[in-house]
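Structure tokens please, single chain.
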Amino acid sequence: MSKKISDVSRTKIQSWIKGGFVYVNSREVADPNFSLKFDDNISVEENVPSDKIEIHPDEKVSFEILFEDDDLLVINKPAGVVVHPGAGNRDHTLVNGLAHHCGKNLSTINSEIRPGIVHRIDKDTSGILVVAKNDFSHMQLAKQFEVHSIKRKYICFLYSVLRPLNGKIETLISRSEKNRLKMSVSQSKGKKAVTIYRTIKNFSNYASKVECELLTGRTHQIRVHMSNLGNSLIGDRTYKVKNYSLPKEYVKEINEFPRQALHAYFLEFIHPRTKKIMRFECDMPDDMKNLEDLLNKIEKKN
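Here you go.
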């Protein structure tokens, strides 16, 4: 980043840190009080917001509400919706929609561009998110994420079939040195990432339906882990590793699936105030159901 640190206010730097834009030795730092050591390497995302982003409530941002009370919302985010504003995505994000629905009743612990946001999923990933309406709930939920007690499960469709069919992946994940917009598995640096996977269905070895449970929540974790095993998610152009074998009559339709075929279908946590176990599931969206129908046709023909 070319901007000198002296040109930026302390408040702005703190907002960058809270917003997840600052890395120390390739690891994301979320605490402005993080202690630096001599020779630490500090980097800032190239797409860090350059000026103040105002949150404009937007009723056009639609999402399904699975649960709501005075402390939190549980929603089903559609694919194609960015969770919070940032460089290049200042409007029409989930946060804009939440601001329209909740007004000022969203937690303020996170950065000013992430009111209520406790965790994220990618723009082109669909599925369940929990949103905090106040700081108490945010802190309690954040603690559950920190100790990995929240259960998160995803459904995805992969090219080919994983070997073994079921397993546990433990690696380090860090930002790619070749492309800062991508993450990669590393042998020596990054954050620990753990994914448990289970193959639900094999579509004649051309593709498979897989459940992934996150024991950690790293950026692009499932996409990176599956790609590293040699089985990219269908539709994932960022992490596709090779051209896969497919029946000729279905190559175009499968390869042109418009997003990574990934859906966060299950979330379980303890309610921050009532201490009750909250468990939610939501069906795959229509595009993934249609993809499954297509893959079933392949299996029947083979």
